[in-house]
Amino acid sequence: MPETSIANALRRPRGPRKTSAGRLPTDPSMALTGTPEPSDVDTSYLESLLGYNARRAALAVIAVFLRRMDTYGLRPVDFSVLSVVAHNPGVTSRQICAALDILPPNLVGMVKSLQKRGLIVKKPHPTDRRAQGLHLSAPGQRTYREAQATATQLEQEVAGRLTSDELQTLITLLRKVYRR
Q1: Is residue 107 exposed (0-12), middle (13-18) or buried (19+ Cβ within 10 Å)?
Q2: How far apart are CA 145 and CA 63, in angstroms?
Q3: HSE, side-chain direction, 13 A CA sphere, residue 121
Q4: Residue 120's beta-bridge partner residues?
Q5: Exposed/middle/buried for 103, CB within 10 Å: 0-12, 13-18, 19+?
Q6: Could you report the per-residue pLDDT of 84-105, keeping only the tens digit for each?
Q7: pLDDT in tens, 122-159
Q8: b/e per residue 53-78 (b: at least 16 CB within 10 A)
Q9: Which residues of 31-52 are buried (b: 16+ CB within 10 A; e: fewer)?
Q10: Domains detected in the chain
Q11: Which of 22, 25, 68, 84 is the most exposed place for a label (fewest CB within 10 A)?
């Protein structure tokens, strides 16, 4: 039996559905749950859509990511921000918003939260007096280093069904879709 998805885990459990006549269904594939088995449901049109497949793949990766990053108290967006700051010391909030396609008001709260946790610090920008650069603190560097190792490991596990060439092709094709 497949593992329950995050989306399905958040739904309320339901009992068997009754037919229009008020009886439980007699179709054997519907006997226990009241709904057809997933293998009996035609999703061929959905599976022909890029968005559907990208979303399903993302959900599979995110489910594992959420479990593993819970140790560090990081959501995917927090990890992304830490990664950009780690690889671009002194980066500004404006640059992060542009790089990650985050709205400025949303980033403000994230930066405050990461600052409050002691993971990042603000320092005056060397060339723009109006801006402040973001840097990882010592605890932030340690947390990011450990979280990055965890992310690398989980990516290898999740992408284990793909050859390295297939994985690189998939990443290249997905970038073609979302990059302008």
Answers
A1: middle
A2: 21
A3: 9
A4: 136
A5: exposed
A6: 999 999 999 999 999 999 999 9
A7: 998 888 888 899 999 999 999 999 999 999 999 999 89
A8: eeeeeeeeeebebeebbeebebbeeb
A9: eeeeeeeeeeeeeeeeeeeeee
A10: 45-159 (1.10.10.10)
A11: 22
Mean pLDDT over 16-29 rounds to 49
Neighbours of 93 (CB within 10 A): 19
- Least confident span in 34-38, 74-78, 120-124, 141-145: 34-38
Residue 107 identity: L
Query: How big is the CA angle at 13 (ends 29 and 77), to the nearest 5 degrees?
Result: 110
pLDDT recorded at residue 127 = 83
Tell the residue number behind the tokens 């979280």, with chain if given. Answer: 147
State the residue for tokens 């994230």.
110
